[in-house]
Amino acid sequence: NVEIENRLAELESRSSFQEQALIEMSDALAQVRMESAQHAQLLKQALGDMRTMRTMLNDDPGIEPPPPHY
Q1: Is 1 helix (H, G, I), strand (E, B) or coil?
Q2: Burial code of 30-59, b = ≥16 C-beta within 10 A, e = fewer?
């Protein structure tokens, strides 16, 4: 009986440890997902800014005044 009780206590201890590890991994995964969403938003904004800059650089140069040395 003592051997069975010791084995049961060991199994309960392992189960508790695994449950805690699972909770910590779940929390870490939630954090990574949140950071990933933030990074995706930043990337989307950066791409939008790049498109705006490309459009501004490709505008018709005829509408800009000539450089001062002309």
Answers
A1: coil
A2: eeeeeeeeeeeeeeeeeeeeeeeeeeeeee
Model pLDDT for residues 23-51, shown as the tens digit of each residue: 999 999 999 999 999 999 999 999 999 99
Three-state secondary structure readout of 13-70: HHHHHHHHHHHHHHHHHHHHHHHHHHHHHHHHHHHHHHHHHHHHHCCCHHHCCCCCCC
> Rounded to 5 degrees, what angle do the CA atoms 57, 63, 65 make?
100
Amino acid identity, position 50:
M
